[in-house]
């Protein structure tokens, strides 16, 4: 690290020029990168996806999309009976609003289940072809416009469905990626201004801007090699903002500390690189490990987020360890003005706090573990699935239309129908058998091209309730089981079938993912901390913290204790199926950052001759404000992400934000100091047999004062 610092300082003008070119390239190419991102949640090889693709190929729509529900409510005093032709023209017109639409209604099924019980409203299912482009707008408005033109005088036409409800009637919504990034940057600037109390507060923001645009540049070639999920753009912008600022904050803080100790500017940069730079490298690798673990899952969109997400710490580390020292080595002392805050001693508050925790380490550890255990208990009640229709919207045309249908006795299962692909000659026997399945409300066998093409037919199954979580999909499992023994049945598609596939493909491989992350992280941290016990504690606490975070998400979103008060969104009834995996992959590395920051400094102080307790107090006294500020910056970035449209994005953002705050407070400021103090000399033991393959020096504890845990044997 010393050699690297010397190299950067010797060539600092070239380094700044290089990143200036990257900045320009990023501005020019970021738009092209985002245009190439896709929306694709398919699961290749899984039964539901295979059937969905067969349906799409044969019929041109449906399979892996939730249909639009087009409803026509006749004026008071009129009923659907006697006006079937008028209603049929509305649905026929809706089917012409865009290419490839497929309409299932009373006209081609002969089933009066498409009417409400008061006979005033009729509805149709409109299936469409899935478009993977994130710029694709919903078809709500075109379908409504076409239907209204064909509607009888005085009739009210509405369009609802999972997608219109999720958008709240707004295809866009939210401030967008750029707006969210600016919101996060504004919050970060306020925190940095408090931390530095000088113009140095602008430096981490500059580094973050370069890092984010560099990530988009590196992401562009990846979009040509494979499909990359549109979600990556939000992660790059907001998480990239937080991570790059955190790393730069750590480096600049250590540089200021060395300057306040009397070192000249050159030496201060070199020492900051030796200590803070060392911690940044290990932190970046830890974050990358968590994200790259997603590639073991047989799910393309998660893999793409693993590849794309891993570029975030890579770019952050590169910019922080090159651009930051290059700027500090040139104009650092000049921009550190007015120098109100000094770093020549540990924070009084954090030193007093840590000393109190160390004195009452048993109480602190017990209280923190009890709180985490309670949240882990809540986590055990998690339901994996999709947000319920009740939580998607509370106002707007789509909500009003759904309310009309529900009041008329239409089951919410119409929002998430199953499509069963069968051979045409067996369609009616299959439909008759599936109508007897528990939890099925209606079964339709459409006539004509809407349900029959090339010797294949689609049997549409409407469940009693929408199949949006790991418990409500039981009816889908029963339908799948029934079709296995029915002649001519090919397979079952729909959102419920997709969830079952996802639970099998992803959560079936979850133990492997956890094992890979934990093992690689443990080995990395053994080398970083030169200890066998500290990395084990770090990995276990991270897993407990993540489970507790998901417990808080169950309370906040699934049970609605917070989502309604803050976002005006009712209890979702489930946590969206892909979000726990993403939270695990991102938070495992991000929260480990703080563990690395704190324990690296504690280890440094211990190696300087302090006792374990003294090292803990001094180490957290030096890093407490840094970790708290870094966590707050990341939290503000996630808060900006939560301002985006859609319940799922808000759920992901709040989960990440809650996890960061929980980890930076309960875990890092209570459990870490109390447990390190309790373990005493055992923290610092790395025998030669373990040190040799890692190419680090063995470690033995020096004598501890009485009252600590027993000291292990040297060597």
UniProtKB/TrEMBL annotation:
Q: How does it sit in the membrane?
A: Multi-pass membrane protein
Concerning InterPro entries, the annotation shows: MMPL_dom (IPR004869), Mycobact_MmpL (IPR050545), SSD (IPR000731)
Pfam family of this protein, just one?
A: MMPL
Q: Which residues cross the membrane?
A: 182-200, 205-224, 230-253, 279-301, 307-331, 362-382, 506-526, 538-558, 564-590, 626-646
Q: Which terms are listed as keywords in the entry?
A: Cell membrane, Membrane, Transmembrane, Transmembrane helix
- Keyword Transmembrane listed: yes
Subcellular localization is given as: Cell membrane
Which SUPFAM superfamilies does the record match to this protein?
A: Multidrug efflux transporter AcrB transmembrane domain
SSD domain residues are 196-330
Q: Does the keyword Metal-binding apply?
A: no
Name it.
MMPL family transporter
Species this protein is from? Streptomyces hokutonensis
């Amino acid at each position: 690290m010393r050699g690297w610092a010397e190299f950067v300082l010797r060539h600092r003008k070239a380094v700044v020029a290089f990143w200036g070119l990257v900045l320009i390239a990023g501005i020019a190419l970021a738009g092209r990168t985002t245009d190439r991102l896709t929306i694709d949640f398919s699961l290749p090889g899984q039964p539901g996806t295979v059937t969905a693709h067969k349906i799409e190929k044969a019929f041109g729509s449906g399979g892996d999309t939730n249909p639009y529900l087009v409803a026509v409510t006749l004026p008071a005093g009129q009923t659907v009976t006697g006006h079937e032709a008028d209603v049929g023209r509305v649905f026929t017109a809706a089917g012409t609003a865009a290419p490839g639409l497929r309409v299932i209604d009373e006209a081609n099924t002969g089933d009066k289940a498409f009417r409400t019980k008061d006979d005033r409203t009729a509805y149709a299912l409109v299936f469409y072809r899935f478009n993977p482009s994130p710029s694709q707008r919903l078809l709500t408005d075109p379908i409504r416009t076409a239907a209204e033109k064909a509607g009888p005088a005085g009739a009210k036409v509405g369009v609802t469905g999972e997608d219109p409800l999720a958008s709240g009637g707004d295809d866009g919504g939210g401030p967008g990626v750029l707006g969210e990034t600016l919101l996060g940057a504004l919050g970060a600037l306020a925190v940095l201004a408090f931390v530095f109390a000088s113009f140095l507060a602008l430096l981490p923001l500059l580094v973050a801007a370069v890092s984010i645009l560099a990530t988009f540049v590196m992401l562009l070639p990846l979009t040509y090699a494979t499909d990359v999920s549109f979600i990556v753009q939000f992660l790059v912008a907001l998480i990239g903002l937080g991570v790059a600022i955190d790393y730069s904050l750590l480096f600049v803080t250590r540089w200021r500390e060395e300057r306040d100790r009397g070192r000249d500017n050159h030496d201060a940069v070199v020492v900051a690189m030796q200590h803070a730079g060392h911690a940044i490298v290990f932190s970046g690798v830890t974050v990358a490990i968590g994200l790259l673990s997603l590639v073991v899952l047989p799910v393309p969109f998660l893999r793409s987020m693993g590849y794309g997400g891993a570029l975030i710490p890579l770019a952050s580390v590169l910019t922080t360890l090159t651009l930051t020292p290059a700027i500090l080595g040139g104009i650092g002392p000049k921009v550190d003005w007015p120098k109100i805050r000094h770093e020549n001693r540990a924070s009084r508050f954090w030193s007093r706090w840590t000393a109190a925790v160390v004195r009452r380490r048993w109480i602190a550890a017990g209280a923190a573990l009890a709180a985490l255990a309670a949240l882990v208990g809540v986590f055990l009640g998690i339901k994996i699935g999709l947000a319920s229709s009740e939580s998607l919207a509370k106002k707007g045309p789509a909500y009003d239309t759904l309310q009309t249908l529900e009041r008329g006795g239409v089951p919410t299962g119409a929002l998430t129908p199953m499509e069963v692909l069968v051979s045409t000659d067996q369609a009616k026997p299959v439909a008759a058998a599936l109508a007897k399945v528990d939890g099925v409300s209606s079964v339709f066998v459409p006539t004509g091209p809407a349900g029959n093409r090339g010797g294949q037919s689609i049997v549409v199954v409407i469940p009693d309730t929408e199949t949006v979580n790991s418990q409500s999909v039981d009816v889908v499992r029963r339908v799948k089981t029934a079709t296995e023994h029915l002649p001519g049945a090919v397979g079952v598609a729909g959102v419920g079938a997709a969830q079952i596939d996802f639970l099998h493909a992803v959560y079936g491989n979850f133990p492997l993912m956890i094992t890979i992350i934990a093992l690689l992280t443990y080995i990395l941290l053994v080398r970083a901390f030169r200890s066998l016990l500290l990395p084990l504690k770090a990995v276990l606490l991270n897993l407990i913290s993540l489970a507790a975070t998901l417990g808080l998400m169950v309370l906040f979103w699934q049970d609605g204790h917070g989502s309604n008060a803050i976002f005006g969104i009712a209890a979702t009834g489930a946590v969206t199926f892909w979000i726990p995996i993403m939270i695990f992959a991102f938070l495992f590395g991000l929260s480990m950052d703080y563990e690395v920051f704190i324990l690296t400094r504690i280890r440094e102080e211990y190696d300087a001759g302090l006792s374990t307790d003294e090292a803990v107090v001094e180490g957290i006294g030096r890093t407490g404000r840094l970790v708290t500020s870094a966590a707050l910056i990341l939290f503000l970035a996630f808060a900006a992400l939560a301002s985006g449209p859609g319940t799922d994005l808000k759920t992901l953002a709040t989960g990440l934000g809650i996890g960061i705050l929980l980890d930076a407070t309960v875990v890092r400021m209570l459990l870490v100091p109390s447990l390190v103090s309790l373990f005493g000399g055992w923290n610092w033991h790395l025998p030669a047999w373990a040190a040799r393959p890692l190419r680090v020096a063995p470690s033995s504890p020096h004598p501890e004062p009485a009252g600590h845990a027993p000291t292990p044997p040297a060597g």
